Automatic annotation (TrEMBL):
Oxidoreductase found in the keyword field: yes
Catalytic activity: 2 a phenolic donor + H2O2 = 2 a phenolic radical donor + 2 H2O
Keyword Signal included in the entry's annotation: yes
Cofactor(s) this protein cannot do without: heme b; Ca(2+)
UniProt-listed InterPro entries: Haem_peroxidase, Haem_peroxidase_sf, Peroxidase_pln, Peroxidases_AS, Peroxidases_heam-ligand_BS, Secretory_peroxidase
The protein's Enzyme Commission number: 1.11.1.7
SUPFAM superfamilies listed in its UniProt record: Heme-dependent peroxidases
Domain of life: Eukaryota
Compartments, as annotated in UniProt: Secreted
UniProt protein name: Peroxidase
Residue span, Plant heme peroxidase family profile domain: 27-330
Cofactor note: Binds 1 heme b (iron(II)-protoporphyrin IX) group per subunit. Binds 2 calcium ions per subunit.
Main location: secreted
Length: 330
């Protein structure tokens, strides 16, 4: 009997340790600010809508900002922090230099609008504002709307060094993608769904030039690329192109968040190796085909995936605070 009790005790302890990492994200909930700042979602949405009307870049810029934030030290708005003094912040790491300023601007303006309401001042974190703004730009560009879980605190550190090896690269294969997403508690279906954020936005030529000029000794052009699309890319991105020149990630519906991303993959029109591999690898191909034919199935999977993404590395208690300004520590 005593032995049985010991076994039960050991099992319960080990289960407790398994559950510990979830306790931070467990504090996230819908309507988190119902009592402290009930109008927060409409305030943020109004600012995001205004930014969206000024420039469509707001959409991909905000989505990428959220993704790059969550994959490095969790969803804590640490990517918004400016470098200062001897501290080189996350946003100045080479992998983050391509983040468009409109994403940062959206978060900062939304925070200012929230804090302009006396009852809301210093009650809402920048991390939560970024999560709400991401939902709003997705909906504004034709994607699904969804209830955002809230209750994150802002992170207390932001270093360029912390970004190393944390963000997926355009050259990644399926194993590398799955490994990096799994490290953040995300499954292969989550990864495929989140990759469809490439349905909007643009990329600089340098990120995929190897696929159209020097892929391999036998094949200068990546054979998985649609030949006509490869020629089109070569015309838009000649060999010594201006590094600021960029092309649409989705050649067909570049300003609509939709499942055309998957239809493009079926036709060999994935811009990055990490896009096209989702169709060429037999392990991920079935979902690409399924979501290419059903926008509802894709939208549902995307909402599940981005909700899980929003739970990564959530800061609570003494691990975070609510910043007065999103781009500087208190």
């Amino acid at each position: 009997m005593a032995r049985f009790i010991n076994v039960v005790l050991v099992l319960s302890l080990s289960l407790g340790f398994c559950l510990l990492p979830e306790t931070a994200s467990a504090q996230l909930r819908r309507n988190y600010y119902a009592k402290t700042c009930p109008s927060v979602e409409s305030i943020v949405r109004n600012v995001v809508t205004q930014k969206f009307r000024q420039t469509f870049v707001t959409v991909p810029a905000t989505i990428r900002l959220f993704f790059h934030d969550c994959f490095v030290q969790g969803c804590d708005a640490s990517v918004v922090i400016q470098s200062s003094g001897s501290n080189k912040a996350e946003k100045d790491h080479p992998d983050n230099l391509s983040l468009a300023g409109d994403g940062f601007d959206t978060v900062i303006k939304a925070k200012q609008a929230v804090d302009a309401v006396p009852g809301c001042r210093n009650k809402v974190s920048c991390a939560d504002i970024l999560a709400m703004a991401t939902r709003d730009v997705i909906a504004l560009s034709g994607g699904p709307s969804y209830a955002v879980e809230l209750g994150r605190l802002d992170g207390l550190s932001s270093t360029a060094a912390s970004v190393n090896g944390k963000l997926p690269q355009p050259s990644f294969d399926l194993n590398q993608l799955n490994s990096m997403f799994a490290a953040n508690g995300l499954s292969q279906p989550d990864m495929i769904a989140l990759s469809a954020a490439h349905s909007v936005g643009f990329s600089h030529c340098s990120k995929f030039s190897n696929r159209i000029y020097n892929f391999s000794r036998q094949n200068p052009v990546d054979p998985t690329l649609n030949p006509a699309y490869a020629t089109q890319l070569q015309q838009m991105c000649p060999r010594n192109v201006d590094p600021l020149i960029a092309v649409n990630m989705d050649p067909n519906t570049p300003k609509t968040f939709d499942n055309v991303y998957f239809k493009n993959l079926q036709q060999g029109k994935g811009l990055f190796t990490s896009d096209q591999v989702l169709f060429t690898d037999q392990r991920s191909k079935p979902l690409v085909n399924a979501w290419a034919t059903s926008s509802n199935a894709f939208n549902n999977a995307f909402v599940t995936a981005i909700t899980k993404l929003g739970r990564v590395g959530v800061k609570t208690g003494r691990d975070g605070n609510i910043r007065i300004r999103c781009d500087t520590f208190n």
